[in-house]
Amino acid sequence: MNDPTRERRxxxxxxTLADTLVExxxxxxxxxxxxxRCRDLLDAADAGIILADQRGALAVAAATxxxxxxMSAVQLSIGAGPCIDAYTFGAVVSAADRTEIGDxxxxxxxxxxxxxxxxxxxxxxxxxxxTIGSLNxxxxxxxxxxxxxxxxxxxxxxxxxxxxxxxxxxxxxxxVRAQLQHALDSRVLIEQAKGxxxxxxxxxVDEAFGLIRKRARDSGTRLVELARGITQRVIEx
Length: 237
Fold this sequence. Notes:
10 helices, alpha+beta, transcription regulation, transcription, 5 strands, GAF and ANTAR domain-containing protein
């Protein structure tokens, strides 16, 4: 962290995220901002977040690309991988290359190769004794997560956790579970809207999400509300 440019970007990231933590903030947009900043600050190819729902089932909550989302989904479907282990054991998991990934999670080796990733690192999202998900970094170069990057990643994961749980509702278990469920339910709507926009405009889903997100920001509309309008055909894709 002796790079002044990187330090400045990190400070700007925390300021940006802190400014959003006000009543009525858009948690989905916040999580996507966070994974984008993680990708850029930590020189990862992609970053994503998985969260546990009310029943404890994990689901993808945010991802910087479609291939990142697919890679996360594969881990969820087979119930194995660094993202799963980080959530299960509440510890940072770092796999430096495909050989290590294959040795530790054999069923994940093919998916890693297909996605073009060389390394995967996962950081648990924890608050006190509760782990609610994991922040995951996917790299196209080999290497473990170094100590400095691990510190930054943990700090950003903490911000993500607080963003979801919010200090005012941590003690209210029902409200916390409802907030998590809302984030995951909103994600489903957004995924449907992405597919509709992509098909209608003949673009890929990453471009479609970029258009939806820009449209929401420009119009001052919550992502989930805009997505609902698109899926219900009330708003043109």
